[in-house]
């Protein structure tokens, strides 16, 4: 068993019809999908999820966007999951993302950037627990 990361396919990528293509890239890159659900965040839930960014100028915009449509949340497993997944998705701003990365291919802007990936093992655990119960995470 490898270690785990957490991802969300964001409302822009869901609305633009990219769920299938993104899940394909994730599987081809060697990640096992441990748990997955399509859901929609309320403004309150999106605010809780991104509470670490509360003082940032883009917080309001971020919460509004993340609650604007459906998302796909998933827990992924692979050796070196957090770091390898962040390489696969590319830089936060798609303008700086490398060719072939998910954000380069599917993101619209720094805010509407198609996909989230946890930035540490600790946050992967916290974020996965936000969406999935113990019974859902085998
Ligand atoms: P994510 O990695 O999911 O977590 C924080 C998010 O804040 C990040 O993706 C971006 O989509 C968003 N973000 C970061 N910087 C900006 C910005 N300058 N303007 C709007 N959104 C931003």
From TrEMBL:
It catalyses: a ribonucleoside 5'-diphosphate + ATP = a ribonucleoside 5'-triphosphate + ADP; a 2'-deoxyribonucleoside 5'-diphosphate + ATP = a 2'-deoxyribonucleoside 5'-triphosphate + ADP. SMART domains: NDK. It comes from Chitinophaga caeni. InterPro entries: NDK-like_dom (IPR034907), NDK-like_dom_sf (IPR036850), Nucleoside_diP_kinase (IPR001564). One of its GO terms (cellular component) is cytoplasm. This is Nucleoside diphosphate kinase. Its EC number is 2.7.4.6. It comes from the Bacteria. It is an enzyme of class 2 (transferase). Its cofactor is Mg(2+). Belongs to the NDK family. It holds the Pfam family NDK. One of its GO terms (molecular function) is nucleoside diphosphate kinase activity. PANTHER family: NUCLEOSIDE DIPHOSPHATE KINASE, NUCLEOSIDE DIPHOSPHATE KINASE DDB_G0292928-RELATED. The keyword Transferase applies. It is found in: Cytoplasm. One of its GO terms (biological process) is UTP biosynthetic process. Gene3D superfamilies: Nucleoside diphosphate kinase-like domain. Homotetramer. The active site is at residue 116. ATP binds at residues 10, 58, 86, 92, 103, 113. Major role in the synthesis of nucleoside triphosphates other than ATP. The ATP gamma phosphate is transferred to the NDP beta phosphate via a ping-pong mechanism, using a phosphorylated active-site intermediate. Residues 2-136 form the Nucleoside diphosphate kinase-like domain. Keywords: ATP-binding, Cytoplasm, Kinase, Magnesium, Metal-binding, Nucleotide metabolism, Nucleotide-binding, Phosphoprotein, Transferase.
């Amino acid at each position: 068993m490898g270690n785990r990361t957490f991802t969300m396919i964001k409302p822009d990528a869901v609305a633009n019809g990219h769920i299938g293509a993104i899940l394909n890239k994730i599987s081809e890159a060697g990640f096992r999908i441990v748990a997955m659900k399509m859901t929609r965040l309320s403004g309150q839930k999106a605010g809780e999820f991104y509470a670490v960014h509360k003082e940032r100028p883009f917080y309001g915009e971020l919460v509004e966007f993340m609650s604007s449509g459906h998302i796909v949340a998933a827990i992924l497993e692979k050796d070196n999951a957090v770091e390898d997944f962040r390489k696969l998705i590319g830089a936060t701003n798609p303008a700086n993302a490398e060719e072939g990365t998910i954000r380069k291919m599917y993101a619209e802007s720094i805010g509407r950037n198609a996909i989230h990936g946890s930035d540490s093992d600790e946050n992967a655990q916290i974020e996965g627990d936000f969406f999935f119960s113990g019974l859902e995470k085998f």
